[in-house]
């Protein structure tokens, strides 16, 4: 076994141990004055409605129903906090891009997200989920603009990578790399995942563990 492969195995094991604990729902917040006290570090998951945020969080934590999943776009309208201890908290952010929501609701969600991003000093990274079947959309670009403006480190996670054909997936990867290539707050590495098969879940756990 080479040194690099040993390091990789060690990183994967750190990630496995970090997420092996009994994860639990902490609380939901619809306004920044209702946020929980800052404890350890936080990582947040953002993405278009129905991109698979809840399914990914459930896969990461090894639980089937920690985060609610729904076929109804726009169901998550608050910041939802989950934790397995003081070291790490996962934040499920409201999905964006749901056209049927009222302008008032969309405005409220946007303010909540931006205020959270700007004011949460222990937020280490936002993982922006992109559906690999569709690639980066206009609403995703708007979200990346917000993250760049807020100067919050973020990383792209492609979801449902078990569904597109290999050539289509490669095209989405190339287009996504191009979309983030000149963005100041974007992490250059793109993580490919599939919640149904477990693809990329150990690697994403290891990346999050490295932030500690």
From TrEMBL:
It comes from the Bacteria. One of its GO terms (molecular function) is metal ion binding. CDD domains: YihA_EngB. Keywords: Cell cycle, Cell division, GTP-binding, Magnesium, Metal-binding, Nucleotide-binding, Septation. InterPro entries: G_ENGB_dom, GTP-bd, GTP-bd_ribosome_bio_YsxC, P-loop_NTPase. Its cofactor is Mg(2+). One of its GO terms (cellular component) is cytosol. GO terms for biological process: division septum assembly. Pfam families: MMR_HSR1 (PF01926). Residues 39-212 form the EngB-type G domain. The keyword Signal does not apply. Necessary for normal cell division and for the maintenance of normal septation. Belongs to the TRAFAC class TrmE-Era-EngA-EngB-Septin-like GTPase superfamily. EngB GTPase family. NCBIfam families: GTPase_YsxC. This is Probable GTP-binding protein EngB. It comes from Bauldia litoralis. The gene is engB.
